[in-house]
Amino acid sequence: MTYLIQQILNALQLGSIYALIALGYTMVYGILRMINFAHGDFFMVGAFLCLISVTVLGLPFIPTLIIAMIGVAALGVATERIAYKPLRQAPRVSAIITALGVGIFLENFTLALSPYPKHVPPLIETVNWTLGGVTVSNLQVIIIVLSLALMAVLHYIVQHTRTGIAMRAISFDMGTAPLMGVPVNSIISVTFALGSCLGGAAGMLYAMAYPIIDPYMGIMIGWKAFISAVVGGIGNIRGAVLGGFILGGTEILVAAFLPSTYRDVVAFTILLVLLIFRPYGILGKPTAGKV
Amino acid sequence: MKKVSLFIAALISIALLTVACQKSGENVIKVGVIAELTGSIPAVGASCKNAALLAVKEINDAGGIDLGGKKYKIELAVEDSAAKSDQAAAVAQKLITQNKVVAIVGPNSSGNAIPASEIAETMKVPLITPWSTEPKTTLDKNGKPKQYVFRACFTDIFEGQALGKFASETLKKQRAAVLHDVGSDVLKSQAELFRTSFEAAGGKIVAFETYTSGDKDFSAQLTKIHDANPDIIFLPSYYTDVPLQVQQAYRLGIKVPFLGSDAWSTPELIKMCGKDCEGFYFMNHYSPETRNPMTKKFADAYKAMHGSVPDDIAALTYDSFGLLVKALKSAGKAEPQAIRDALAAITEYKGVTGEMQFQPGSGDPRKGAVIMQIKDGKFVWFADTQP
Questions:
Q1: Interchain contact A127–B (C-beta under 8 A)
Q2: Residue A159, Cβ neighbours under 10 Å: how many?
């Protein structure tokens, strides 16, 4: 029993990081119907900002988190303005290719600055608590609680503020929203800022939990988070969170109860089967194609 | 069209001229070096090249090698494999056909050494790899020893066995867990051979867990290992994964020591792992601190020339050149076939990484290894192991 609880805690930690990144994919898709494939690399930039903040500036935990979040949010907004906005009317494939290009640019830019894997020094002293055979570290608690808190804040913004209403309006009908006085461009910027800022926070938390970072670290995590968003129902915020925890949970639990060599095979088969029965994701709704 | 052919003709004549110029230098033996100078493991390639430069400088400063009454100097042709298998094969081809080298030292990583050795074997030019421990490097497709391929290091078979014995006999451990990367042939075979020899020595493998290259979260596997209650964990992982695995183990409450393979052996490990790896043991090809006067002389000369302590790749490259020079002297002429026959005839060699013994018909030396311990943020010699 303690073994299961320990593994569930592991799953919660991994799942909350997937969920934070998946939110970035889903928010951009919800508004622009575009998949921002550079998002995994935004996450990587967040981890490297954390490294700079700790080693060069010597800042503690909270300021480092803020730097990572604001830095990546700014990067997201700038990327949208420079690379995506000119292509808003272009075929969707062009926008996706641009996103891939931005991702490759960010990877190689970071690679040029830091070709070797880097170690991020710990920001907080690790403390272990043992409760009835289950070991919890303070870092694990911080990651899970902070992720859930950020998701709650996002939920509040989207559901209960004027900006959130405007976002949902654009997502519902991009053509009509400006006629009702919704400032489309600035709302899109805010969406990018929010999504990227969560990606930056995920990058920072990831660098704390897995403190060896390299310029290509965002690729695989980015794909996994994207899969989480699709499984949960892309475009749906609660779906992205659910998808992140489902993917983290299957990965950990498969490795926990089956030979670990089959982890990815079994985990992704489960997800594929899930998509066969719910092709729009667990919480996604079928969208009628406009003729 | 005419312009193009003129241009090509000009290019060809320039190429011929350079080849002619290279040939004009008499009393020179050309030796090729293939090192991983760029790509994923640049530290390995740099050590290899530095040691090659030192070895050649020492030979040439002493007047060169005496072959049939004439003194010959060694001329190096260094090529970069970029840690890519296709490029390793391409530069091996280039060294043999264009630079006309009589022998090649390198590449170091098994993924590069295997394709390069195939080229050397078909072109009948001897190749000595300093650091490739993969058994397949010196074996052909049918599992028979290659005729032209040699190495200066022990193989994974010895390493896995020696580590299993060390864990059970020296450390007196009875319950071992293993965590390894299934994406790497070398690490996988180290893990499997460790299991065999640890069990043969009377120990029990309580968990045998895997992950895939690039993974950063090992919590599920480590929780499983914790649950199996081992008294030692064998971790044949590269130095970029070790710190993550060790730290995650601590966070899950694991308190048993870890044991590593030669994949740990770079000072980068200590920089990244810090205090977390303190006290752990791993296997290495040699220790710069040993009392062997030849090793000490090499380490001092290397430090004077390059300003750093030589790692195992540097020491093994230096020994590869030692083997080559010994073969050249007994062959008496600088021809690939004669060098190959002389290399194959070597039965014993005393190098900076210890004594090597070659069995007839095999390019693999029988040699000892050292167990190093991480102590006060340094690699410290702990014990010698003999096959």
A1: no
A2: 11
- The alpha carbon of residue B311 is apart from the nearest alpha carbon of chain A, in Å, by 18
Which of A6, A139, A261 is facing B210, going by the closest CB pair?
Answer: A261
**For the residues of B39-58, what is the DSSP string, one character each?**
SS-HHHHHHHHHHHHHHHHH
For domain B28-154+291-367, which architecture applies? 3-Layer(aba) Sandwich (3.40)
Q: Where are the domains of chain B?
A: 28-154+291-367, 157-284
Residues A35, A226: contact at Cβ < 8 Å? yes
Helix, coil or strand: residue A58: coil
H or E element that contains B11: helix B2-24
* Inter-chain touch A14–B247, beta carbons under 8 Å: no
Q: Which pTM does this prediction carry?
A: 0.80
Nearest to A261 among B182, B216, B251 (CB): B182
Closest CA to A252 of A267, A268, A272, A270: A267
Q: What are chain A's domains?
A: 2-125+137-277 (1.10.3470)
Predicted complex ipTM: 0.84
Distance (Å) from the C-alpha of residue B143 to the closest C-alpha of chain A?
28
Q: Give per-residue burial for B7-32: e unless 16+ CB within 10 Å, then b.
A: eeeeeeeeeeeeeeeeeeeeebbbbb
Alpha-carbon distance values, B117 to B30, B111, B194, B261 (Å)? 18, 11, 27, 24
Find out whether B363 and B146 touch, Cβ atoms under 8 Å: yes
Tokens of A85: 């906005």
Residue A272: strand, helix, or coil: helix
Q: What is the pLDDT along chain A (291 residues), one digit of tens a residue?
A: 889 999 999 999 999 999 999 999 999 998 888 899 999 999 999 999 999 999 999 999 999 999 999 999 999 999 999 999 999 888 888 988 999 999 999 999 998 887 778 889 988 888 889 888 888 999 999 999 999 999 999 999 999 999 999 999 998 888 888 898 899 999 999 999 999 999 999 999 999 999 989 898 999 899 999 999 999 998 889 999 999 999 999 999 999 988 888 888 888 888 889 889 988 888 887 765 444
How many helices (H) and strands (E) would you count in chain B? 12, 16
The overall longest dimension of chain B from CA atoms, in Å, is 79
In CATH terms, are B28-154+291-367 and B157-284 the same topology?
yes
Exposure class string for A247-277: b at 16+ Cβ within 10 A, else e: bbbbbbbbbbeeebeebbebbbebbeebeee
* Nearest of A234, A224, A23, A220 to residue A103 by alpha carbon: A220
**CA-CA distance, B335 to B338, in Å (whole number)?**
5
Architecture of domain B157-284: 3-Layer(aba) Sandwich (3.40)
Tokens describing residue A185: 């461009």
In degrees rounded to 5, what are phi and psi of residue A36?
Answer: -85, 85
Q: With an 8 Å Cβ cutoff, is A169 touching chain B?
A: no
- Residues of chain B positioned with their CB less than 8 A from the CB of A212: 216, 240-241, 243-244, 272
Region at A230 (left for phi over 0; alpha for psi -120 to 50; beta for the rest):
alpha
